[in-house]
Amino acid sequence: MSESNILSRRNFMKTSVAATGSAMFIKPETAFTYAANSQLRMGLLGCGGRGTSVAGDFINNNDIQLTAVADFFEDKTVMAKERLDKTLAGLGRDAISRRFSGKNSPQEIANCQEVDFVYAATPCYYHPEHVRIITDAGKHVYIEKPAATDVKGCLEMIKIGKKIDGKLSAHMGFQVRYGAYFQEMTKLLHEGAIGDIACVNGFYFASDLGMKDQPGDSPTARKLRNWIYDKVLSGDPIVEQNCHIIDAYNWVMKSHPLRATATTARKVRTTKGDVNDHIVVTYIYPNDVRASFMSTQFLPEWGSVEWRFFGPDGYAHATYAKGLNIYGKNPWQAGAAGAGARDATIDPLGDSTPNKTKAFVNSILNAQYENQLISGSESTLSSILARQAAYEGREMTWGELLASEQSWETDIDLDKL
Fold first, then answer.
1. Burial 88-127, CB ≥16 within 10 A → b, else e
2. Per the structure, how many domains does the chain have?
3. Where in the sequence is the domain holding 137, given as residue range(s)?
4. How far apart are CA 276 and CA 386, in angstroms?
5. Splitting the chain (417 residues) into consecutive groups of 10 residues, what average pLDDT does each group show?
6. d(CA 170, CA 370)
7. What is the secondary structure of 378-398 as a DSSP string?
């Protein structure tokens, strides 16, 4: 099978693992099963805000030990260890015993004998390389989204996914699919609650992000600390941040978009890096379903994240804020009678990351290895499709994107940190 055909709709549905409720079962003779009383040992690669936050979710919601932290920058490993040691102490667990920093830190934590799996929250550009390093060392991996920042990186991630399938667990950080109420709403939509979906609308209105600088940083270090503002390192907001909602679109639609048109620009945030600050997209999904999407990343305060699916029998409204609803012939409200123990003011994202970390850990403990590298790459490519359509100022098809061999190279020299 050629790489250009791996993510056709038909082949994707055959080769990918659903993000919820599915696992890859391997032959008993090759299974690696942990003893019932053993404690998985975790390594954290990438000690920024996201990395330390999700690491906290891992150790608060699972009986595991965080044994090692790693980052390109030593000061970040010091801060992460201090913060996470307090969490570990509160749970009666040992303090972190190993710290790695510098350009070789990904390889060092992958090789660490005190680590069984690595959670990696590094700049998006490095995701394929870091997943390769970790899995080549025989370790399970939970990599943050997106899969990569270019087509080449996504195809590399797919190859890794095929190589480790049935041997290691590999999750990607698309956690919306693990929220119990998001799951319930999606199940109802798949069962026809609003009829055949006719069109989709969504947005991600975000605030500006701060700069992260340290006294004495070299230009290379400053750029790497602020990777979010670099197109090559981050992929632009549609790929780095907005991919969560595009992943939700694909989840409900059971497919990736077939083509896209888009426009993007820098009109407000013009002094930070080279990324755009807003984008407007129209996707075409199978059955001629049009899905619009818009995002901003320059507001003075947080905006909102919402998406809606419309059909002949009603519409569904999902949001990061309070409450999820289906309106029309088959009304439903998250947390209402029959939908769970909580009420309609629930935080739909509240259980998503804890549930995802539990699913990942359990997949290792039970030797039911889950592989999300292909499905995660599909959602990433769906975001890249919109970005490239905007960059080239034309409609772009899925096939054109995969055939483009689009590739980016960073000018970051890690020897100059």
1. beeeebeebebbbbbeebbbbbbbbeebbbbbbbbbbbbb
2. 2
3. 3-177+357-379
4. 13
5. 44 42 30 57 97 98 98 98 98 98 98 98 98 98 98 98 98 97 97 98 96 90 97 98 98 98 97 97 98 97 96 97 93 71 69 97 97 98 98 98 96 92
6. 6
7. HHHHHHHHHHHHHHHTS-EEH
